[in-house]
TrEMBL record:
<comment type="function">
    <text>GTPase that associates with the 50S ribosomal subunit and may have a role during protein synthesis or ribosome biogenesis.</text>
</comment>
<dbReference type="GO" id="GO:0003924">
    <property type="term" value="F:GTPase activity"/>
</dbReference>
<dbReference type="InterPro" id="IPR006073">
    <property type="entry name" value="GTP-bd"/>
</dbReference>
<feature type="binding site">
    <location>
        <position position="232"/>
    </location>
    <ligand>
        <name>Mg(2+)</name>
    </ligand>
</feature>
<dbReference type="GO" id="GO:0005737">
    <property type="term" value="C:cytoplasm"/>
</dbReference>
<feature type="binding site">
    <location>
        <begin position="230"/>
        <end position="234"/>
    </location>
    <ligand>
        <name>GTP</name>
    </ligand>
</feature>
<dbReference type="InterPro" id="IPR042108">
    <property type="entry name" value="GTPase_HflX_N_sf"/>
</dbReference>
<keyword id="KW-0175">Coiled coil</keyword>
<feature type="binding site">
    <location>
        <position position="212"/>
    </location>
    <ligand>
        <name>Mg(2+)</name>
    </ligand>
</feature>
<keyword id="KW-0963">Cytoplasm</keyword>
<dbReference type="Pfam" id="PF16360">
    <property type="entry name" value="GTP-bdg_M"/>
</dbReference>
<dbReference type="GO" id="GO:0043022">
    <property type="term" value="F:ribosome binding"/>
</dbReference>
<dbReference type="Pfam" id="PF13167">
    <property type="entry name" value="GTP-bdg_N"/>
</dbReference>
<feature type="binding site">
    <location>
        <begin position="318"/>
        <end position="321"/>
    </location>
    <ligand>
        <name>GTP</name>
    </ligand>
</feature>
<comment type="similarity">
    <text>Belongs to the TRAFAC class OBG-HflX-like GTPase superfamily. HflX GTPase family.</text>
</comment>
<feature type="binding site">
    <location>
        <begin position="205"/>
        <end position="212"/>
    </location>
    <ligand>
        <name>GTP</name>
    </ligand>
</feature>
<dbReference type="InterPro" id="IPR035647">
    <property type="entry name" value="EFG_III/V"/>
</dbReference>
């Protein structure tokens, strides 16, 4: 928008180094899937090892020559690094390679920009892009960034740069205000659900674990689901009926990924609030993923980062058809259901999931028929105030029979 760049192309050179920084190695297959999800065509994968990245171009001179040779041999127009790059490193690499260079964060932002469908989703993507762009704005004005004497070197270089920075800041403020209104609307909807005491169950998990497929299977909805990273970006909510429990709201949310950029976490707060306010989290796990335990840890890490680490969880091991296993339920020593094994694609084990939801949510909902004496009118009034009374009748002696349903914590408070 604010600076000239090389034309982007689909043929891409992928670069991933192993660094002595103590961080776990990135999955090259996931990196390749990210590029494909963005519409790129990987033509070469360049790997290597460095003790630490160089400050100028991240890679050493020998590796830079290797990238340049691959780029020319395959006539690639894009080089993608599976690492965070500083603005100066991106600029130096583009000057050396004469093509567009993007880092992992820019790649994920591009995928998000393609996936956003709702007005809210587009606003969140634009906010993340603008925050990312604001750190790289100077690159387009390198010919004006120093004021010094001489013919052709005078002029409003800094003024132009500051003008663009002000435009960015103004647009960011506008988007933040719009998203704040979205958050207010979501809060209003949540208050309505809370008054009706409807539990919210939020699907979370690593990207491409099968959350949308499971959502469609349980709710009979038609949410877009595909075997690609970040197929879902905008949250979708649907009401379902669970036996012996009643109505439950199920939310499908954006998938997590390792090293999720902080700009995305900040920009997608409005979406992540559906996770933060959930009664129960369904952590969907790809049972056939080779690095399954690592992916589970990454999701747990992101949940802790956004403040959802203490919300009760039920693990759902999906894609059981690929593992050629039978559906089953796993209970802990206290008999509480901890995990359900199922296949969202075939529907095997969905009945076990509904049983697990009923049991787990019953633990947090009090639902029973109680009898109140005429002297207990204050409790009857309080139950009506919170919308807990489903049915009422009277005995011949004047006692009230109430069928009530409300969160267990509220029932304990009212009893006291």
């Amino acid at each position: 928008m604010f600076f000239e760049r090389h034309e982007s192309g689909e043929r891409a050179i992928l670069v991933q180094l192993s660094l002595d920084d103590g961080a776990p190695a990135q999955d090259p297959r996931e990196f390749e899937e990210l590029v494909v999800s963005a519409g790129g065509e990987p033509v070469a994968f360049i790997s290597g090892h460095r003790r630490a990245p160089t400050s100028k171009t991240f890679v050493g001179s020998g590796k830079l020559d290797e990238i340049r040779e691959a780029k020319e041999a395959f006539e690639a127009e894009l080089v993608v690094f599976n690492h965070p790059l500083s603005p100066s490193q991106e600029r130096n690499l583009e000057q050396e390679l004469c093509c567009r260079v993007i880092a992992r964060t820019g790649l994920i932002l591009d995928i998000f920009a393609q996936r956003a469908r709702t007005h809210e989703g587009k606003l969140q993507v634009e906010l993340a892009q603008l925050r990312h762009m604001s750190t790289r704005l100077i690159r387009g004005w390198t010919h004006l960034e120093r004021q010094k004497g001489g013919i052709g070197l005078r002029g409003p270089g800094e003024t132009q740069l500051e003008t663009d920075r002000r435009l960015l800041r103004a647009r960011i403020r506008t988007i933040e205000q719009r998203l704040e209104r979205v958050r207010s609307q979501r809060a209003q909807s949540r208050r309505s659900r809370q008054r009706a005491e409807i539990p919210l169950v939020s699907l979370v998990g690593y990207t491409n674990a099968g959350k949308s497929s499971l959502f469609n299977r349980v709710t009979e909805a038609a949410v877009y689901a595909a075997d690609k990273l970040f197929a879902t970006l905008d949250p979708t909510l649907r009401g379902i009926e669970i036996d012996h429990l009643g109505k439950v709201v199920l939310a499908d949310t954006v998938g997590f990924i390792a090293h999720l950029p902080h700009t995305l976490v900040e920009a997608f707060k409005a979406t992540l609030e559906e996770t933060l306010n959930a009664t129960l989290l369904l952590h969907v796990i790809d049972i056939v993923a080779e690095d399954r335990d690592y992916l589970v840890d990454e999701v747990e890490s992101v949940l802790a980062e956004i403040g959802a680490g203490d919300i009760p969880q039920l693990r759902v091991y999906n894609k059981l058809d690929l593992a050629q296993q039978s559906p089953r339920i796993l209970r802990n020593e206290q008999g509480v259901i901890e995990a359900v094994y199922l296949s969202a694609r075939t529907g095997a084990g969905i009945d076990l999931l509904e049983l697990a939801l009923s049991e787990r949510l019953q633990d947090q909902v009090f639902q029973d028929e109680i009898t109140l004496a005429p002297s207990e009118g204050r409790l009857r009034a309080a139950l009506y105030d919170v919308g807990a009374v489903e049915r009422e009748s009277w005995d011949s002696n004047g006692d009230n029979r109430l069928r009530i349903r409300l969160p267990l914590k509220d029932w304990e408070r009212l009893k006291n």
